[in-house]
Known about the structure:
37% helix, two-stranded antiparallel sheet, single chain
Amino acid sequence: MKKTLLILATAITFALPLSGNAETPHRQMIPQHADAACQWINGYYRQDGTYVQGHWRGCP
């Protein structure tokens, strides 16, 4: 029983930090020169099927 709880606790400990970073990785890379004009644009697919990666728009 103790071994099962230890394995479960370890799995939860490793899974929690990954879930938060996977959703908002751009928050880790905010430009140092960011101001109110900077805006994060999420990745998207164009009509021709090309994927455009997420990027900052409006930053000098």
